[in-house]
Design goal:
Helix content: 40-55%
Distance between the termini: 52 Å
Oligomer: single chain
Number of helices: 11
Number of strands: 9
Largest sheet: 9 strands, mixed
Order of helices and strands: HHEHEHEEHEHEHEEHEHHH
Radius of gyration: 26 Å
Structural class: alpha/beta
Length: 318
């Protein structure tokens, strides 16, 4: 700082001298400018080192929750929320002794209230914590419970982060073996905030086999690797369509794209989920196929994904 002050005085003196007709010359000005840039650069590097020394936010577990599983996608419209809901129900169906919760972290476009057929505002307990709404044995929390169905959420980043913190920390989850978090699409503030503030057991990436979806799915997987969140694997959603009349199978969005991406990333393909009318119809009615059509092939596909997720969690934790 002392060197910078001396440079400032020299610069002021040179300007004053120039005004009186005594010009130190362009070479002197260039030298002074270069010297000041060097000092500014060193000061900037020092500030950056101090900021880095502070480190990332310290991760704090969610009270009562043993393992957090995030379900993410790089792109919207690939069936991420439907997969998250049926994954949570699949975990419960495979082992009824386990307790599973569901958190909707998609603040701008909450889907869990519709998919789980839940409405109403959460009540508060004696500790001023929100009590989750429950259906099909799964406690759920979503921003959709706190705003009107058609009300747009027009918030800037800081407000969104505050809402996420409230959904994470100010909810009475009780005792949960798994908390499945339905993440918003993309790789933005919410993903980073949850990954850096909460110990996440693993991430499940959902994608269709289509090339354009796989590009963004790869970005999502790479993001979790950078923040040291284990990628449990990929779910290939809408993998194949079977005609209900002739039973001919058509790969509308391509064939085995997610499987190839999983091989490229060195992660597991957790399972294939077909493009089936029953999944869409039951989701729109708030009756996920795992509970409404438990004996169907599509429900079995979700249960297989849930089994693969549990197996990967065991591998990661050993």
């Amino acid at each position: 700082m002392a060197q910078l002050s001396r440079l400032s005085r020299l610069l002021r003196a040179s300007v004053h001298t120039a005004g009186t007709g005594s010009n130190p010359g362009p070479a002197c000005c260039v030298q002074l400018t270069r010297c000041q840039r060097s000092v500014d650069s060193k000061a900037l590097q020092e500030r950056q080192k101090q900021q880095m020394a502070k480190g990332l936010p310290k991760q704090k577990p969610i009270s009562g929750v043993k393992q957090v599983i995030v379900v993410a996608s790089g792109k919207g419209g690939v069936g991420k929320s439907t997969t998250a809901v049926n994954l949570a129900l699949g975990l419960l169906a495979n082992d009824p002794l386990k307790s599973v919760g569901l958190l909707d972290a998609d603040v701008y476009g909450p889907s869990i209230p519709k998919l789980m057929n839940l409405k109403g505002n959460p009540e508060l307990n004696d500790h001023n914590l929100m009590i989750p709404l429950i259906n099909y044995g799964v406690p759920c929390m979503s921003m959709g419970f706190l705003v009107d169905d058609v009300a747009p959420i027009v918030w800037r980043g800081l407000m969104v982060m505050s809402a996420i913190e409230r959904l994470l920390r100010q909810v009475d989850w009780g005792s949960l073996d798994y908390l499945v978090v339905d993440m918003p699409p993309g790789t933005g503030d919410v993903q980073l905030s949850i990954s850096q503030n909460v110990p996440v057991a693993g991430a499940v990436i959902v994608s269709t086999p289509q090339d354009i979806a796989l590009l963004d799915a790869r970005r999502g997987a790479e993001m979790f690797k950078k923040v040291n969140v284990p990628v449990l694997g990929l779910v290939q959603n809408m993998s194949v369509f079977q005609c209900p009349n002739c039973h001919h199978q058509t790969h509308i969005f391509g064939s085995d794209g997610a499987r190839q991406l999983a091989d490229t990333l060195g992660v597991r393909l957790l399972g294939d989920v077909p493009l089936h009318l029953n999944i869409r119809e039951m989701s729109d009615r708030g009756k996920p196929v795992v509970v409404s059509s438990p004996d169907s092939p599509e429900a079995e596909a979700y249960r297989k994904v849930a089994s693969a997720v549990v197996q990967r969690l065991e591998e990661v934790n050993t």
